[in-house]
From TrEMBL:
Name this polypeptide is given: Esterase
Family: Belongs to the 'GDXG' lipolytic enzyme family.
Annotated catalytic residues: S155
GO molecular function per UniProt: hydrolase activity
PROSITE patterns: LIPASE_GDXG_SER (PS01174)
Entry keywords, A to Z: Hydrolase
InterPro entries reported for this sequence: AB_hydrolase_3, AB_hydrolase_fold, GDXG_lipolytic_enzyme, Lipase_GDXG_put_SER_AS
Organism: Sphingobium herbicidovorans (strain ATCC 700291 / DSM 11019 / CCUG 56400 / KCTC 2939 / LMG 18315 / NBRC 16415 / MH)
Residues annotated as domain Alpha/beta hydrolase fold-3: 78-284
Record bears the keyword Hydrolase: yes
């Protein structure tokens, strides 16, 4: 299927992004930030949005807490933004956190984890795991239900969510009800086959961009064998929470995203995997105006609500 017509028209009026490795990291961060905060937010109503910090393994971690309208206690979802582990912050994917809080009728705690290359692997994972534990421990204080905890993320954040689900399973706590992954690959480095070849030159994300982000992120190639970097490489996938996995059709890492689903299914995990036609990497950030993004958010929220409802019944 060709690129979504709305995206095609949008890209036709914009200059093409240069290859990521040609842009200094500070300039890249500023470009992503400035373009992201200009995007219209989703038209949702929330009871409150507040910023604070929580304890982390290397100091305080900034978080933003989104509380839905209605009466709690609500489920609580730890959300991790995308950006290749190199760019992104609480503002760049504010729209996704808002949509998730309203649509899943859940408190969302968005985590401003440490970024590479200043903070190499596994710094981001350490921060997100600390935040996941904090969310579970402090759910009641936030107006949430400590028995209804989930993790979610887009792109790099989807990898972080998958890793935290594995870490929670291994630690025995918190017991997660759901994991949501919008286009976060299950394996690294990205295998150079299938969608990686078909969409090697984008649009939006090039295969070399994905490789370069990981060059900045990892310490050496041995990190690729760590399940926190490649969730598919975990020894076991049994006992994980139900997973929603979304991929974009026109994305070089599409196949690496979708390949995690059969691994989970083989381990007996409930999985809903959906490929969104005509979409590109990062498309959920256009939640404020793009029907494909709205569908991916609605599908993820419906899945989360179903899992939280089941967890309530089994409590």
């Amino acid at each position: 299927m060709p690129l979504d017509p709305q995206l095609e028209a949008m890209f036709a009026n914009q200059p093409e992004w240069p290859p990521i490795r040609t842009v200094p990291v500070p300039a890249l961060r500023e470009a992503v930030r400035s373009s992201s905060i200009q995007m219209p937010p989703p038209q949702v109503s929330l009871a409150s949005v507040s910023d604070r910090t929580i304890p982390g393994p290397a100091g305080e971690i900034p978080v933003r807490i989104y509380t839905p309208e209605g009466s709690g206690p609500f489920p609580v979802i730890a959300y991790f933004h995308g950006g290749g582990f190199v760019v992104g912050d609480l503002d760049t994917q504010d729209m996704i956190a808002r949509g998730l809080a309203a649509g899943a009728e859940s408190i969302v705690v968005s985590v401003d984890y440490r970024l590479a290359p200043e903070h190499k692997f596994p710094a981001a994972f350490d921060d997100c795991w600390a935040a996941t534990q904090w969310v579970a421990t402090n759910a009641a204080e936030l107006g949430g239900n400590p028995a209804l905890i989930g993790v979610a993320g887009d792109s790099a954040g989807g990898v972080l969510a998958s890793a935290c689900a594995l870490l929670a399973r291994d630690a025995g706590s918190p017991r997660l009800s759901v994991q949501i992954n919008w286009y976060g690959p299950g394996i690294h480095p990205i295998p150079e086959e299938g969608s990686a070849i078909e969409f090697a030159d984008g649009p939006i994300l090039r295969l070399d961009d994905a490789h370069y982000f990981w060059e900045l992120h990892i310490r050496d190639d041995s990190d690729f064998d760590d399940f926190r970097a490649s969730p598919m490489k975990a020894v076991s996938h049994e006992g994980l929470p139900p997973a929603f996995i979304a991929s974009a059709e026109c994305d070089p890492i599409r196949d690496a995203v979708e390949s995690y689903a059969p691994v989970l299914e083989k381990a007996g995990i409930e999985v809903e995997v959906k490929r969104y036609p005509g979409m590109v990497h990062g498309f959920v950030s256009w939640l404020g105006f793009l029907p494909g993004a709205q569908a991916a958010m609605a599908d993820a929220c419906a899945f989360a609500k179903k899992q939280f409802a089941a967890a309530r019944q089994n409590a």
